[in-house]
Design brief:
Arc Repressor Mutant, subunit A; 3-stranded antiparallel sheet; elongated; TF_E_archaea; transcription regulation; DNA binding
Length: 189
Amino acid sequence: MKGKGRNRAVKSLEIYVRKLAQANGIKPEMAAHIFHLIYEETPNGGISDDDLESLTGYKQSDIRRILRLLGDKRIIVSRKGRHPRKEATRYFWRIDSDTINVSLLTLKKKVLEKLVVKEAHDSGNSYYTCPRCGSKYSFDEAFTLDFTCPRCGEVLEEADSREGLERLRRTIDALREEIARDESRIYRS
């Protein structure tokens, strides 16, 4: 990854790291901070959890929890090393571009799968919206509500979902093309 592509990938990964942290009961800003420190030290061979602790002031248990989470998702990898002054083994954490590219590709495929399911669902169902507050309801929900908005009492109107579906299909097509490009770049022989 070079230039703008790298910056975009790092930003995408940071968003992913924040969401991953939040879903696992970890402070998102702490996980993002650790991720950025590892990213900055990757060209130098990585950074140890002891160094992360001294740089951030975070508790070692929190740091290790974040490292384990990022490692499990193959965002970072570790290598074993020796402490320069002690005889203890240390682990140095770094971002491995090969595994991270595969992780991003896997994530894109999961997003694509969800979008395809949404497109199939949306194309087979009609929706109703409230012209006053903008609330959206499926046909079944609108039927149950007697086609009256429960928030403001306005009569629900059938929504024209063609434009939204077309936008969703363009997004799906673009993501499929991006996945194909990524696969050819990652798996080229």
